[in-house]
Amino acid sequence: MKPYVALILVILLSACIKIKDKKPSPIVQGGSTPSLQQFRYTLSGKLSPSYSGIGRVGDNYIYAPNIRFPIENAPAYINSQVYGVGGLYGKAGSLCDRRNYQYPWHDNFCEKRDWGMPMCPSGKGHQGVDIRTATCDKKKYYAVAVESGRISYIGKYTVTLRGNSGRKYRYLHLDSNTLQVARGQTVRRGQRIGLVSDNMGKTKTSIHLHFDMKQTIVIDGVPKQVYVPLYSSMVDAYKRLLRGNP
Fold it and tell me: How far apart are CA 82 and CA 67, in angstroms?
């Protein structure tokens, strides 16, 4: 065998060994701004995994039109905290597993929870959507006002925004020591509210933002203020964020 041919074979074999031995890290190390073409999401109401509950399949109505996406910058990932990797009922692993930080999005409104939910098929379920930030780092990424309005309530781990539209939005699990707003304060659309964390009072949760909205809906002929599905509204808002026109 000629010397230069042998040298080429050695180089190729070395490259193959390196590729084979390289294992993906289970921990998210960083995030980059995605394009609209990279964004993927499953259907509204299609919960994942399938045993996590029954969603409002086919309800693609945008209950909160033209709101800003509640996380300041992309990427962000809507998926279950309870049924995701590392969650209470999810696959074994770290809450920071990179499978929790990738597309496609999965709706988690109406997944199995104990709260009464008139708009969920089972009558009970998750009140909103859980959103992970770009990476598994707490107190690094800001949640922002989805519309202009007033901060009507601040609790141990809850901030409520009463929008000028009359809709009521809740932000859960923000770091309470670094909030950028106070009760009664008027805020503008896109203004920073606080840093996404794992704050849940004395009980820790995963690093994420729980975001929900109450709206008056006619149910069985009776107007009721209830939590409404926000997944389609989030998809719409996120697409505008990716286009640079949030």
Answer: 26
Element at 12 (helix H, strand E): helix 3-21
Bridge pairing between strands 209-219 and 222-227: antiparallel
Could you give the number of structural domains in the chain?
Answer: 1
Q: What is the pTM of this model?
A: 0.85
Q: Please report, for the domain that includes residue 225, its CATH number.
A: 2.70.70.10
Size (the chain), residues: 246
Contacts (Cβ under 8 Å, ≥6 apart) of 174: 143, 157, 159, 193, 194, 195, 196, 197, 199, 209
Tokens of 5: 């041919």
> CA 151, 153, 155, 157: dihedral to nearest 10 degrees?
-50
Query: How confident is the model over 194-217, as pLDDT tens digits?
Result: 999 999 988 879 999 999 999 998
